[in-house]
Amino acid sequence: MTRTRSVRKFALAAFLIALATITAAWTFEIVGDYKPCPLCLQQRWAYYFSLPVLGLIWLRMLTLQADLDVVRWGLIAVTMAMAVNAGMGFYHSGVEWGWFEGPTACSSGAGLSGGLPDLSKATVINCSEVQWRMFGLSFAGWNMVISAAIAAIAALGVKRTYGSSSVSQ
Asked: According to the model, what pLDDT value does residue 123 have?
C-alpha cells in the first residue's frame, strides 16, 4: 500500500512539473510574444507524450488495483522520453552558444508540399537566436534542466515499483 502511494506521488510530481513547464511555454508564446523555433517545438513533443501517460498512471494508481508492471513501463517510457528531451535541450543550447551547427529547418523555410498550406513562406525563427535568458540559461537550457528533473523523478518512481510488498505478486 505504501509503495503504491509513493509511486503515485512520483507520477503526480512529474505530471505537475511537466504541466507547469508546457503551460509556461505557451504563456511566454501567447502573452510574452516569444516565438518558438523548430527545435523549441520539437522539444515540446516529450511533454505532449508524457503528460497523458503520467496522468493515466496517476489515475490508475488511485484505484489501488494498479498493475505495477504497467505503471513501471509507463514510467520507463516517460523517463526515456524526458531524458532524450534533456539531450535535445542540451543540443539546442549548444546551437545557441555556437557549439553546434543547427538544423537547416531553423534557418530556412521548412514547408510542406501538396494540398496543405505552404509553410515555407512563414517566418522561421532562427534556432541560434536566444530570445530570453534567466540566470544564464535560455528557454532551451531550462528545458534541459527541467526535462532531466522529470526524467529523474520518473526513474525514482520506476525504482519504487520494485521491492517487497504486502500485496501478493
From this structure: 60
CB of 135 closer than 8 Å to CB of 142: no
Q: 43-78 burial, b if ≥16 CB within 10 A, otherwise e?
A: bbebbebbbebbeebbebbeeeebebeebbebbebb
d(CA 119, CA 132): 25
**pLDDT higher for 62 or 165?**
62
The identity of residue 6, as a single letter, is: S
Grid coordinates representing 160 are 519504487
**Domains of the chain: residue spans and CATH:** 2-101+129-161 (1.20.1550)
CA distances from 41 to 36, 45, 106, 160 (A): 6, 7, 11, 32
pTM (two decimals): 0.76
Within 10 Å of residue 26's Cβ, how many Cβ atoms?
A: 12
